Each structure stands twice: as C-alpha cells, then as structure tokens.
C-alpha cells in the first residue's frame, strides 16, 4: 500500500513538473520524422497480464525487425538517439505508473516473446510485482545495445546471456523489495543519468 501511494504521488508530481519538457520533446519528434509522438508496445505485467507500455517514439515508423536494439541501430531517428541516451524517451511511463500498470521501481517489463522463455520459478517470482521504470538490471545493463552489437548473433546473446543475468537481478530485487530499496535505486538511477 505504501509503495503504491509513493508511486502515485511521485508520478503525478513528475508529470506536472516535467510537462513543459514533455511538450517540447513531442514537438521535436513530430518535426524530426514522420509518425506518432508516442510508441506503444505490448509488454507482460504483474501476474502475467499484458499491458501497453508508453515511450516517446525514437525509431522510424517502419521499424520492423528485432525486438531488441543493437548498437547504432539504423532504425533510430536523429531525435531518438538523444532521447534514448538521456532516457527521456522513458518519461511517458510515469503515466503508466500513475494508472497502475507499472511502478517507479520494479523488474523491467519484457515482451511476450521473451517472457515465454523465462524459467517457470523465476517467471512466477518476477511477475509477482508490478514492472518498473528502473531496477538493478536497468542500471547494470545501461549499455545493453552496445554489448549486443559486439555479439555475432545479438538476439542469441540476449536470450542466452543478457536476459538470464537481468532476470536473476530482477529476482534478487523482488526478494528484498521495500521503500528503502526503491529510494536507493531511484537515487542511483538519477545519479547515473546526471553523470551522462
């Protein structure tokens, strides 16, 4: 209950405080490339329920291909490169937090294709909480796309190496989750972003 109250207050205040920035980013995206401002994608949420996550669009509308981003992906727009590097593209997820589909801190939500590959015991544990905007795996794999770019087969590297490591970090978080842990992770995320 305390965690949900914290999520509601912080996400609401965040959306209000960041409204001017969100508007500027929306205009930039529209001027930079054809297509909608927002990107919506189905992800797997708490208890395995699907939901649509919201981000600022950072790729061309004809972005068919892998469901992971690899290195200097040529699908990424000019504005999208900055938005991704700064993580500003993730800010619309404050709305997902406010409406209850996500939390500020929790395991990052994955697409159904990859959730289907989770080991059963870890799947049940990780999906027992709301997915989050940030978590230990997000911090540890901040440069995931560069890591995958060095692999001969990026998707295989993601499935066999990166995803299991992220899943274990997410499971460890769920086992010790609490407001104090969340506050530490939010601070660590902000500090990482400010350092660039």
TrEMBL record:
Organism: Roseateles rivi
Keyword flag Transferase: yes
Keywords linked to the UniProt accession: Transferase
Name of the protein described by the UniProt record: Sugar transferase
Record domain Bacterial sugar transferase: where: 3-194
UniProt similarity note: Belongs to the bacterial sugar transferase family.
Enzyme Commission identifier(s): 2.7.8.-
Ribosomal protein in keyword set: no
PANTHER family recorded: COLANIC BIOSYNTHESIS UDP-GLUCOSE LIPID CARRIER TRANSFERASE, QUINOVOSAMINEPHOSPHOTRANSFERAE-RELATED
GO molecular function terms attached to this record: transferase activity
């Amino acid at each position: 209950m305390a965690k949900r109250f914290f999520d509601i207050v912080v996400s609401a205040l965040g959306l209000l405080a960041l409204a001017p920035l969100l508007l500027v980013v929306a205009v930039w995206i529209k001027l930079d490339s054809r297509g909608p401002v927002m990107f919506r994608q189905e992800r797997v949420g708490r208890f395995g329920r699907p939901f649509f996550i919201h981000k600022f669009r950072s790729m061309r509308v004809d972005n068919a291909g892998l469901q992971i981003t690899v290195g200097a992906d040529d699908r990424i727009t000019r504005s999208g490169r900055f938005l991704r590097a700064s993580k500003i593209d993730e800010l619309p997820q404050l709305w997902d937090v406010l409406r209850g589909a996500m939390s500020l801190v929790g395991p990052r939500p994955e697409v159904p294709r990859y959730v289907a590959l989770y080991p059963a015991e870890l799947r049940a544990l990780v999906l027992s909480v709301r997915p989050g905007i940030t978590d230990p795996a997000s911090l540890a794999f901040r440069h995931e796309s560069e890591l995958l770019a060095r692999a001969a087969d990026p998707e295989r590297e993601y499935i066999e190496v990166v995803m299991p490591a992220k899943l274990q970090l997410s499971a460890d978080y769920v086992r010790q989750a609490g407001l104090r842990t969340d506050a530490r992770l939010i601070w660590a995320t902000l500090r990482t972003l400010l350092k660039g």
